[in-house]
Amino acid sequence: MLRDLLENASVVEIVATFVALALIAATILCLVYIIIGGITFILSAGNEEKIKKAVHTIRFSIIGLFVSFIAFFIVRFMAILLDIPFDLSFTMIIDLVGEIFDALQ
Questions:
Q1: Alpha helix segments (H runs only) across the chain
Q2: Among 20, 52, 85, 101, which is most buried by a count of CB atoms within 10 Å?
Q3: pTM to 2 decimal places
Q4: Biggest alpha carbon distance in the chain?
């Protein structure tokens, strides 16, 4: 899919794919930072500073993911509003994730 996209796709389709890839990266980073915050919280041993740092890490990662999804919906809404053929849906994102995992194997 990515090879076909880069060879014979329009600029709008390439931008839509990169927006989808950015959303995938934001989701993966959010998951990683939630895990890091959880491990920091578990290993804090009652230290208030470490607990506060862990809670902030988890909170900011969730806020970052929320902002990423809001940006995705704003871009999609603006494309619909301006009548730009911006074909970007969650099925496209899921297909990209499947293709990325297939390429890693």
A1: 2-8, 11-42, 48-81, 90-104
A2: 20
A3: 0.77
A4: 57
